[in-house]
Amino acid sequence: MHAAAAAATAAAINSSNNKQQQQHHNHQQQHHHDYCLQHQQQRQQQQQHHDYQQQQHQQQQEQQQHQHHHQQQQHHDYQQQQQQKHHDYHHQQQHQHHDYHHQHQQQHHDNQQQQHHDNQQQHHHDNHHQQQQQQEQQQEQEQEQQQHL
């Protein structure tokens, strides 16, 4: 909801600047994709940062692209930004409906097998973007899931 309102506001402000408009369009796609990935990670790792990043999106629309990665993927920033623009067009739709279904199921925390399946998909996807960060977290999460099964 906040992202849609911020998008409408930023679109009106930048409507006279074609370069800014295109940059804003790319940023919105990237932000949506990153939000899905972050939501998956934060429910286990750092959910308390979620609200803070949403506030950053409202207050610092122009800087959000850098802030967004810097907080969670500090050393992987440049690769992520380069890959994200073309990567989003291939994966945004399937992640959008997958994560929407996934978020609602995860709120109940009553289906460990489904959680394990989704974490495997999350790890496979994250390996393309956060190999350095995920190698350690991946092992910990997989061990936790095996204990629950």
Extended strand count: 0
CA(first)-CA(last) distance: 36 Å
Tell me the fraction of residues in β-strands, as a range. under 5%
What's the number of helices? 7
pLDDT averaged residue by residue: 57
Rg is 16 Å
Question: Class by helix and strand content?
Answer: mainly alpha
**SSE series:** HHHHHHH
How much helix is in the residues? Answer: over 70%
Query: Main beta sheet: strand number and arrangement?
Result: none
Shape: globular
Biased composition (Basic residues): 87-106
Region (Disordered): 1-149
Biased composition (Low complexity): 1-12, 38-64, 130-149
Biased composition (Basic and acidic residues): 107-124
Descriptive overview:
Residues 1-12, 38-64, 130-149 have a biased composition (Low complexity). The chain is mainly α and 149 residues long. Helices cover 81% and strands 0% of the residues. The chain has helices spanning 2-13, 18-42, 48-59, 64-72, 77-106, 112-126, 131-148. Helix 6 runs antiparallel to helix 7. The longest helix has 30 residues, at 77-106.
What topology emerges from the helices and strands here?
Elements: H1 2-13, H2 18-42, H3 48-59, H4 64-72, H5 77-106, H6 112-126, H7 131-148
Helix pairs in contact: 1-2, 2-5, 6-7
